[in-house]
From TrEMBL:
UniProt-recorded name of the protein: Alpha/beta hydrolase
Keywords of the record: Hydrolase
Entries under Pfam families matching the protein: Abhydrolase_1
GO molecular function, one term: hydrolase activity
Database matches in Gene3D superfamilies: alpha/beta hydrolase
UniProt KW DNA-binding keyword: no
Alphabetized PANTHER family for the sequence: HYDROLASE, PUTATIVE (AFU_ORTHOLOGUE AFUA_2G14860)-RELATED, MONOACYLGLYCEROL LIPASE
Domain AB hydrolase-1: 22-247
Keyword Hydrolase: yes
Organism: Streptomyces vinaceusdrappus
Origin superkingdom: Bacteria
InterPro entries for the chain: AB_hydrolase_1, AB_hydrolase_fold, AB_hydrolase_sf, Epox_hydrolase-like
Length: 271
């Protein structure tokens, strides 16, 4: 693990694979950390890619910024990290909130992105009801900590059947959620409640876009992924059977095949 100071915060990250390889930057969702992407990091590095996987500000080992952290703040952090690593362009991928951060990074820095990978996410702006819910959840996490919330949502983060069928995966996901600093999670929730509409920028995207979704995702179902794939002019949609909201963790071999095939066939300039 390495660390760097970016925009006033210390961010921890992993940097796998050959330094001269094409760069893929992967963004975890809420409330996880960079280890969510371990199966993809190994597969991509073995295929010759350089894989940069940060802990977002407020998550994992990275420094916490209490209060409110916007998706634009996360995007600025990621580009700042790439600048420090002297990386001009990268494939940017994210899951759930990480997918929205990837879209925000594309909205602000499209010239830095070779391709987008959007897993189990939504391009829509937050609704008034959603804004209220996220702020109430932030209050709860600050008051109660992460453990109760983690127990409440594990069978939504993973497909219900995978909670028992994949005990090691469930334990890893629960461990990441419980270990997250409530201040970091709350700040991201409050910022995410203000997120913009990404549909126009996706419709104008010039880079290839891979849209991936677990077949049994209850948070961002297949219909959401289909909507994103219809928006982006150069989009490829893949539905991962046997998975919920985190197909990269639940079905890593299937997810990795889809990702590597996309990079080879749809984004050859990144390979």
């Amino acid at each position: 693990m390495s660390y760097a100071t970016v925009n006033g915060a210390t961010l921890h990250y992993d940097d796998h694979g050959p330094v001269t390889g094409p760069v893929v930057l992967l963004i975890h969702g809420h409330p996880f950390n960079r280890t969510l992407w371990a199966p993809q990091s190994r597969a991509l590095a073995a295929a010759g890619y350089r894989v940069i996987v940060p802990d977002l500000r407020g998550y994992g080992a990275s420094e916490v910024t209490p209060g409110k952290v916007y998706l634009s703040d996360f995007a600025d952090d990621l580009i700042g990290l790439l600048d420090l690593l002297t990386v001009d362009q990268a494939v940017i991928g994210g899951v759930s909130m990480g997918g929205q951060i990837a879209m925000e990074t594309h909205r602000r820095y499209a010239h830095r992105i070779r391709a987008l990978v959007l897993s189990d996410t939504s391009a829509l702006p937050e609704t008034p009801e959603g804004k209220t819910w996220r702020n109430h959840l932030a209050d709860r996490l600050l008051a109660e900590g992460m453990a109760g919330y983690a127990d409440d949502v594990i069978d939504k983060m993973l497909a219900t059947y995978n909670v028992t069928a994949l005990p090691a995966v469930a334990a890893h996901v629960l461990g990441m959620m419980r270990a997250t600093d409530p201040r970091g999670a709350a700040a991201a929730l409050r910022g995410r409640a203000e997120r913009p509409d990404y549909r126009d920028t996706l419709a104008a995207a010039r880079c290839p876009v891979l849209v991936v979704v677990g077949a049994d995702d209850v948070y961002t179902p297949v219909a959401d992924a289909e909507a994103i794939s219809r928006l982006a002019p150069h989009a490829v949609l893949s539905v991962i059977d046997g998975a919920g909201h985190l197909p990269g963790a639940e079905q890593p071999e299937r997810f990795n095949r889809v990702l590597l095939d996309f990079l080879r066939t749809q984004a050859p300039d990144a390979a």
